[in-house]
Design brief:
Strand order of the largest sheet: 15-12-14-13-17-18-16
Low-confidence stretches: none
Distance between the termini: 22 Å
CATH architecture of the largest domain: 2-Layer Sandwich
Largest sheet: 7 strands, antiparallel
Helix content: 25-40%
Bound molecules: flavin-adenine dinucleotide
CATH class of the largest domain: Alpha Beta
Structural class: alpha+beta
Number of helices: 14
CATH topology of the largest domain: Uridine Diphospho-n-acetylenolpyruvylglucosamine Reductase, domain 3
Shape: globular
Mean pLDDT: 96
Strand content: 15-25%
Length: 460
């Protein structure tokens, strides 16, 4: 092994290979304070260095675990002490902004927030947005096909990536840095690396698609007497806004109460009197007419009984305060460790599904805590569940409460976070044997030695 480390040091500069304490002083996740265990962390600066590292590791049959911003929520970056971690943190350059073609070419280690701010500086917008924006990297977003707050209008990461460059397990560089919206010349190879969690290649560069920045945003916080009322409002508001609806973030009362009580210091835009809440946002031209039109649409919804109560943000301060409520997910851990879930199902099944999950939890753990929210316009629900026991056995029982009721409604065990190791045993609930077999054949074709992120998505 010391030969491998010496050879890796020979490929990179003197800051390129970390070992010993320089590894263990780093944490495996932005939330979970568990030290990284690994043979070493390699930190290449260029695609050529990534290629050289992978070619060497393949020769040694050495497992390589890609690390981005370490914000993933399915244990996809987990390591063993024998693994080589490949961190993209030093590949963090924005290489080109094309304001005419509305594209940006970046290295994989650029944090999402930097991309958003760079686009804004050119009067443009990169629509992908999620709470981990300050830490997650575009390479991690691509590898997880991250969703986030604006999927209802702009789609997932996959829909906002035009091209990419990846390095295969044997060191082959596949440069597919397409900048065009249309390109049907054969297979669109970028999809091999989008949402495949570092199991088929290391993403090194990405071409992202930018949009015109909106001149304004209209934001409101609404309350509903029932989930059924909320779904009627969703159809109404999407129709009335004529395609401008760009966020529709639902919160159940349990979550709204959690994040608006001490120690969280979020003020309530509407009272805590209702079962369901939504934070919604629309793109506007920033004119007084647009602001008035948004208020009129919300006012009519109230008159027509499509919502129970609502507050419209009157300033950027109001808007940020509303988003802080949605983003206060760190409160999940107020009562101790929590199991986190990210499931997908048809909106028409959601109300009964959430009720059933809570009934199952209540029957098994009368004292449990369950907080519920989601990107409801996209059919995506998140739960954070604390049952006062974070053992593996308890986790498996809670999994059963959440995942079993998905099967009859054709839901998915992963809406946007991926599979990692955490959901590996449940993949077959959402994918057929033929689909899983084809995934394995693709993996075998691209990484026959199985060195790339082994054990993630399915058992090695
Ligand atoms: C507060 C908070 C809010 C979040 N909100 C959302 C949300 O709304 N929507 C959502 O989808 N997710 C959300 N997440 C989850 C997470 O932020 C996303 O999955 C994100 O895309 C992960 O990016 P990362 O750079 O942190 O990747 P990491 O966690 O470092 O890695 C994730 C996976 O990708 C692989 N990987 C990383 N970089 C590369 C690369 N360059 N090449 C190949 N493989 C690579 C890793 O091996 C791992 O399997 C949230 C997380 C937090 C903590």
């Amino acid at each position: 092994m010391s030969d491998l480390i010496a050879d890796l040091r020979g490929l990179l500069d003197d800051k390129g290979v970390l070992t010993g304490e320089a590894v263990s002083e780093r944490m495996i996740h932005v939330w979970y304070q568990r030290p990284i265990e690994a043979l070493c962390i390699v930190r290449p600066r260029t695609t050529e260095e990534v290629a050289a590292v992978l070619a060497l590791c393949q020769q040694h049959g050495q497992a390589v675990i890609p690390h981005g911003g370490l914000t993933g929520l399915v244990q996809g970056c987990n390591t063993t002490p024998a693994d080589v971690v490949l961190s993209l943190e030093r590949m963090n350059a924005v290489e080109e902004v094309d304001p005419v073609g509305r594209t940006m070419t970046v290295q994989a280690g650029v944090p999402l927030q930097v991309l958003q701010e760079t686009a804004e500086a050119h009067g443009l917008m990169f629509p992908l947005d999620l709470g981990a924006r300050g830490s997650c990297q575009i390479g991690g977003n691509v590898s997880t096909n991250a969703g986030g707050n604006r999927v209802i209008r702009f789609g997932m990461t996959r829909d906002n990536v035009l091209g990419l460059e990846a390095v295969l397990a044997d060191g082959t560089v596949v440069s597919s840095l397409n900048t065009m919206i249309k390109n049907n010349a054969g297979y669109d190879l970028k999809h091999l690396f989008i949402g495949t969690e570092g199991t088929l290649g290391i993403v090194t560069r990405v071409v992202i698609r930018l949009r015109e920045a909106p001149r304004g945003l209209s934001t409101a916080f609404a309350a509903f007497d029932s989930f059924e009322q909320l779904t009627r409002f969703l159809r109404y508001i999407d129709r009335e806004l004529g395609g401008a609806l760009c966020a529709f973030e639902a919160m159940w009362r349990d979550y709204y109460e959690l994040v608006t009580t001490a120690p969280a210091d979020n003020a309530r835009p509407v009272p805590l009197d209702y079962p369901n809440y939504v934070l919604l946002e629309a793109l506007t031209r920033g004119s007084a007419e647009d602001v008035a039109m948004f208020e009129d649409i919300m006012g009519r919804a109230l008159e027509e009984g499509l919502l129970a109560d609502a507050a419209v943000a009157q300033s950027e301060t109001d808007r940020r305060a509303m988003w802080r409520i949605r983003d206060s997910v760190d409160q999940f851990f107020r009562f101790g460790p929590a199991f986190l879930y990210d499931v997908s199902l048809g909106i028409r099944f959601m109300d009964s599904y959430v009720t059933e999950v809570k009934q199952r939890l209540g029957a098994a753990w009368p004292e449990h805590h369950c907080f519920t929210l989601g990107h409801i316009g996209d059919g995506n629900i998140h739960f954070a569940i604390n049952v006062g026991d974070d053992s593996a056995a308890a986790h498996a029982r809670v999994n059963a409460c959440v995942y079993e009721p998905l099967a009859p409604v054709g839901g998915s065990v992963s809406a946007e976070h991926g599979i990692g190791t955490e959901k590996r045993d449940y993949l077959a609930l959402s994918r057929s044997p033929a689909e899983i077999e084809l995934m394995r054949r693709v993996k075998q074709a691209l990484d026959p030695s199985g060195i790339l992120n082994p054990g993630k998505i399915f058992s090695a």
